[in-house]
Design brief:
The chain is α/β, with parallel strands linked by helices. The protein has one domain. About 45% of the residues lie in helices and about 15% in strands. The strands form three sheets. A six-stranded mixed beta sheet has the order 3-2-1-4-10-6, sandwiched between helices. α1 links the parallel β1 and β2.
Length: about 400
Amino acid sequence: MRNPKIVMTLMVRDEADVIAAMLEHHLAEGVDIVIVTDNGSVDGTREILADYAASGRVEVHDYLKHDKNQAAVVSSMAARAATHHGATWVVNADADEFFVAQDPHKTLRDALVGIPTGIGSFEVPVVNMTGPPAREGGALNRLVWRDHREESSLMETVALHSHPTSDVIHVGSADVIVVQGNHGVNIQSLGSPPPGCEVEVLHFPWRTFSQYATKIENTGKSYDANPLLNPSPRHHGMRDYRFLNAGVLEPMYLIRHPGEEPGPEFVHDSRVADRLTRLLENGLAQVPSRLEEALSPAWSEYSEADRVRAQEIARLVIPLEMEHLAASTRWRDMYRAEAAGRRRAEESARSAEAEGDRLARLPELRFRRLVGRAKRKISRVLSSLNRWR
């Protein structure tokens, strides 16, 4: 489609350090409207959103319950993208996700223009961005390394279960349902983007320890407040919530980041910071003062002694987490097997009860059939007699 309407949805809570950069990036990349639901932020995020709402390209709503009801809230926004804004494509994002065309010479809009809407939806790979760790301060100019570490080694080295799950971009639909985490929709995928139009997400989850600790605490308490949600034993947020409660989140945060000279498994990619810097320099930012704050070059560094200490703690924590994961997975599998067994037993009991009812009714049914045949025979006899009169 030559001029698609691109609408992004975003549910956000306490992301003041990155939200301005995220909005500026996507508006510059060709997103027409961003529908944002603020989930009761208290760190200044809501005030930043108000500044962007004044531009007319950001629409802000509020959902104040901290119950991790992301699927319902995002589904509602995605449906609104179609019904209210006439979206051709809908991009459901998190505040730390920056969607880009894989072709560095294209914008997100350029890529989506070349993708036929007939494919319905398509997966978008997500790549973690990392760099030197920091206690607080700026992040986007520091986290310029794509994390391509071998996935099989992540758990035993840095306590990560895996690399991120893919996101999904989909066509506008009033009936769309977005699954928890934005990793799937009920719109079938009938293909992939053609060559040269691929899209990916550059993901900045661990920007500073102060930011990450707040995020993990918010995530864990929100899941705790909603008994209807049952995150997997491998859920990254709940894993780190365990670390937070155990007092070891900071060393675990620290060991995930490479040093000043990352190894070959990290690939340099500064597109996000470079493009945002150019926006400021060229006077094209929507709210320059907010973007300037988000691109702050200053941060609070960790020392080499901090890193050594973190590695010592990690050597104790990671085997315990792996044991916890194995036990939790076994318990989950046992629970699922028992639940499946109970369902089969209940279905068998219902089937047996229905068969018993059928057999119990057989004598009655037979009697009714005999009576019916007798009545029909009597009726025929009476009809014959009437003809002879």
